[in-house]
Amino acid sequence: MTLDQIYQSLDTKMKAYPVTDWQPELIEDIGLRIDVRGDWWQHNDMIRNERIKSLFSRLLVKELQTYYLKTPNVKFMVHSTGLPLRLIDLTWQQGHMAAKLADGREFEVAPQQLVPFCLPTGEDSLFVALPGGCEAQASRQLFYRLVEQATEQGGGRLLWHNVLIGVATY
């Protein structure tokens, strides 16, 4: 199946797909890969079509430590170096957190979806758990902005709007 066939087989106007409801039995490896910058590749060719990349990111799921591009009939393996999705903004709006991904999708995020960083263990990035089992890593710019806006509590705990975003003691 080609990338165009995958794209044409779906209603591309949907903002979200019921990927957790789809249970295809067929699994194919068509050489899809996402690099550390979030660029999509098929074999050694970068996928440059923004509509296809946007659609694929909405179909991305993680099952048993493996990433898949999931459609109603087929799961396509996606090889990834690191976390494939980037969190570029996190805002506080009327008592709720809103997250924005690099692909343009926006989600309401509950505090328990944030995975705080912990400098004593060497983890210096913030993550957010997403639907479909995936996680998005905060961009460096967002990470530094949140740390700057955070208030320090006892034990080096950093809180942003009373939500723990990390621990910064050694």
List keywords for this structure.
170 residues; mainly beta; duf1285 like fold; duf1285 protein fold; 2 domains; six-stranded mixed β-sheet; 15% helix; 42% strand
Strand-helix topology:
Layout: H1 3-8, E1 26-34, E2 40-42, E3 45-46, H2 50-58, E4 60-63, E5 66-70, E6 74-80, E7 85-93, E8 96-101, E9 106-109, E10 114-115, E11 117-118, E12 127-129, E13 135-138, H3 140-149, E14 151-152, E15 157-160, E16 163-167
Summarize the structure in words.
The chain is mostly beta strands and 170 residues long. 15% of the residues lie in helices and 42% in strands. The protein contains 3 helices and 16 strands. A hairpin with a 4-residue loop joins strand 14 and strand 15 (157-160). The termini are far apart.
Q: Helix coverage percent of residues?
A: 10-25%
Distance between the termini: 51 Å
Question: Average pLDDT value?
Answer: 85
Radius of gyration: 17 Å
User: What form results from the Cα inertia axes?
Assistant: elongated
The CATH homologous superfamily of the largest domain: duf1285 protein
Query: What is the CATH fold-level name of the largest domain?
Result: duf1285 protein fold
Question: Biggest β-sheet: count, sense, barrel?
Answer: 6 strands, mixed
As an assembly, this protein is single chain
Q: Residue ranges: pLDDT <50 for 5 or more in a row?
A: none
**What CATH first level of the largest domain would be assigned?**
Mainly Beta
Structural class: mainly beta
Write down the domain tally.
2
Structure annotation, total helices: 3
Spell the H/E element sequence: HEEEHEEEEEEEEEEHEEE
Q: Total strand count, please?
A: 16
Strand order of the largest sheet: 3-2-1-6-5-4
CATH architecture of the largest domain: Roll
